[in-house]
Design goal:
The structure holds two protein chains of two kinds. Helix content of chain A is 16%, strand content 17%. By secondary structure, chain A is α+β, with helices and mostly antiparallel strands. The radius of gyration of chain A is 37 Å and the shape is elongated. Chain B is built from two helices and 13 strands; from the N terminus they run βββββββββαββββα. In chain B, the strands form two sheets. Chain B has a six-stranded antiparallel β-barrel. Classes of the chains: A alpha+beta, B mainly beta. At the A-B interface, helix 7 of A face helix 2 of B.
Chain lengths: 374, 241
């Protein structure tokens, strides 16, 4: 049969199936737009020529009517639209129950002109003559008390107006009383609320490697790595010994991020995810320049070999300049150092300060500035 | 640049022109290191391949590049992974040149802001570019002074858009000085102590600027992206293999 709503008697593909009017049966309403009607069975084809609820769901009328409802042109417009989209099906007679002609006429009189303003036509399939007069022999539908003016796809303003649910908490007031922007928590906007704060983020941002919540909670507990592994920024797990070895192992290369740091206590390099000092033996100016450049801090402005204070807390770990450091071109500093032992012959560590190389200067402007005698 | 003026040769040595094939100048860009420039992500829409692009520096007159200009190919384009074209958020790209530039009087990098360094609201900074109002493109590099506007005040100009922390606003209520098409990707720079200029914004979007201009321009907030920028340079310099 042409529509999926045929009875099993038609299921066999018998000749009666070719006659559409034999394929009558009621089916539950599944079109979200019309899930709050005073009836819950429908049958197809409907009064707009759609053959199934699936076709109705993607029809232009199913986006036209909800938008038109926002204008408030007629209180029962949504009810009328649903009697066309998903006509009532009488479970006894298996017949469709149409809207009354007066309902059709009222909706058209009140709302057709609004469509005209935006250059749209009233749906031509819905000619009111086809519907019975109310009070006549044929039963027809009129809105009863309590019929909801808004559909489940709408948000009902405090004032009673209906606006599309997508406009709820979208940051722009659409209700005449702005009530669509009241009490806008994260869930109203289909967002995820950061624990401990009112910050809302898209669910796709959770565990995506970019911290969005205060306290970075959206990137916490995103991976379960073994004891001898470390979690990459994208929550992959990489063996601890590969961390900051100068070669990428995480697919986002985060195992080689922030391996080198400078602070008042000097140069610190991460290796196997632990902090090391750099032994000053064999250190040289090229490595100082590489360090500042790698950190994007410009050029070395001060380099010192500082005697390590044995009283300072924490266990001493030393990295040494790799004998082949100069052959490792294109490698970051951490790839040019090596673990040799926990001793450093001179017991001196590298301390380094960088200064932004001469960026942001405009020497040519000075050129024009020299004084010209008048 | 609306309401701007012709800039002197060498006044903005970090300004570059991002050019593609027959189109010639498409967007502005900013030199931040000998081999690295910044621009905005939306300039590459539909033209993501690096070999389609050329970067020209040391330009004053688009039509007559002159002896001070330097032309480089593009080795790679790194668009921010979170770039959102619908709302023009995370609108930034790092551009790796195919060879280092030679630093001269007319070609020099600008400073990147330090972490959390922001321009002072209501302070005056400069925007530059070869943008236009939909009519004739100026050949000479234009410059204009704009005032930094707070995000909350900026949001009031754009009720249909969200101004995010990745954005920076500058300009005037009446839009008297503003950036326009073709300026995208160009710099918003502010002068700091000692005459050092720092890059705080990249021209990104705004209200229509070819008719009556209303409201300020919106720039990508470079401070927000400095760690990401440094990371991309580091990864593409030291971890290529």
């Amino acid at each position: 049969c042409s529509s999926a709503s045929c009875q099993s008697s038609c299921g066999g593909g018998g000749s009666t199936c070719n006659l559409r009017n034999n394929c009558t049966a009621c089916e539950p309403i599944s079109l979200e737009l019309c899930m709050n009607l005073p009836y819950n069975l429908t049958s197809y084809p409907n009064y707009l020529g759609h053959q199934s609820q699936r076709e109705s769901a993607v029809s232009w009328e199913s986006s036209l009517f909800p938008a038109l409802v926002q204008t408030g042109c007629y209180q029962f417009l949504m009810f009328y639209a649903c009697t066309l989209l998903v006509p009532k099906c009488d479970p006894l007679t298996l017949q469709r129950v149409p809207p009354c002609r007066s309902l059709c006429r009222t909706a058209k009189e009140k709302c057709e002109s609004v469509l005209g303003i935006v250059g749209l036509q009233w749906p031509e399939d819905s000619d009111c003559v086809q519907f019975p007069e109310d009070g006549g022999d044929a039963s027809c539908l009129l809105p009863e008390d309590g019929v909801d003016e808004c559909s489940p796809s709408h948000f009902k303003c405090r004032s009673g107006r209906c606006v599309l649910a997508t406009k709820r908490c979208d940051g722009h007031p659409d209700c005449d009383d702005r009530s669509d922007e009241d009490h806008c928590g994260c869930s109203e906007r289909a967002l995820w609320e950061c624990p401990g704060s009112s910050v809302c983020i898209q669910t796709s941002m959770i565990c995506d490697g970019f911290p969005d919540c205060p306290l970075l909670v959206d990137e916490a507990n995103c991976s379960v790595c073994r004891d001898n592994e470390v979690s990459c920024n994208n929550h992959q797990c990489v063996h601890r010994t590969l961390w900051c070895d100068g070669r990428k192992h995480c697919s986002d290369s985060s195992d080689e991020w922030n391996c080198v740091s400078l602070d008042s206590s000097g140069l610190t390099v991460l290796r196997t995810a632990s902090e090391y000092q750099v032994c000053a033996d064999e250190w040289n100016p090229e490595l100082s320049a590489l360090t500042c450049q790698q950190l994007g801090l410009g050029v070395p402005s001060y380099v010192a070999m500082v005697t390590d204070d044995p009283r300072s807390p924490g266990r001493r770990r030393w990295l040494h300049v790799h004998p082949e450091w100069s052959q490792r071109n294109g490698t970051a500093l951490q790839g040019r150092l090596e673990k040799r032992s926990h001793a450093c012959h001179s017991r001196k560590k590298v301390s380094l300060f960088c200064s932004r190389d001469d960026c942001g200067l405009r020497p040519a402007v000075g050129v024009h500035r020299h004084r010209k005698k008048r | 640049i609306l309401g701007g003026r012709v800039s002197r040769r060498g006044a903005w040595p970090w300004q570059c022109s991002l050019q593609s094939g027959q189109s010639g100048h498409v967007c502005g860009c900013v030199l931040i290191a000998r081999r690295w420039a910044l621009t905005v992500a939306h300039c590459f829409e539909g033209r993501e391949r690096a070999d389609l692009w050329t970067v020209v520096l040391g330009l004053s007159n688009l039509d007559h590049p002159g002896v001070h200009s330097q032309r480089r190919g593009v080795r790679s384009i790194i668009v921010h992974p979170r770039y959102n074209r619908a709302v023009v958020d995370y609108d930034i790209s790092v551009v790796q040149l195919d060879a280092e530039v030679e630093e001269t009087l007319y070609v020099r990098p600008v400073c990147l802001p330090r972490p959390s360094q922001l321009p002072t609201p209501d302070s005056y900074c400069y925007i530059t570019g070869w943008g236009h109002m939909g009519n004739r493109m100026p050949f000479k590099l234009q410059e204009g002074a704009v005032r930094i506007i707070s995000l909350s005040q900026c949001q009031s100009y754009f009720d249909m858009k969200t101004i995010t922390p990745r954005m920076l606003c500058a300009g005037y209520d009446a839009g008297t000085v503003d950036s326009c098409m073709g300026d995208s990707g160009g710099p918003l720079v502010c002068e700091g102590p000692g005459g050092f200029w720092t890059l705080f914004g990249l021209t990104s979007w705004g209200s229509v600027c070819f008719s009556k201009v209303l409201g300020p321009g919106v720039y990508s907030n470079v401070t927000h992206f400095t760690p990401w920028i440094q990371q991309q340079i580091y990864l593409n310099t030291y971890l290529v293999h």
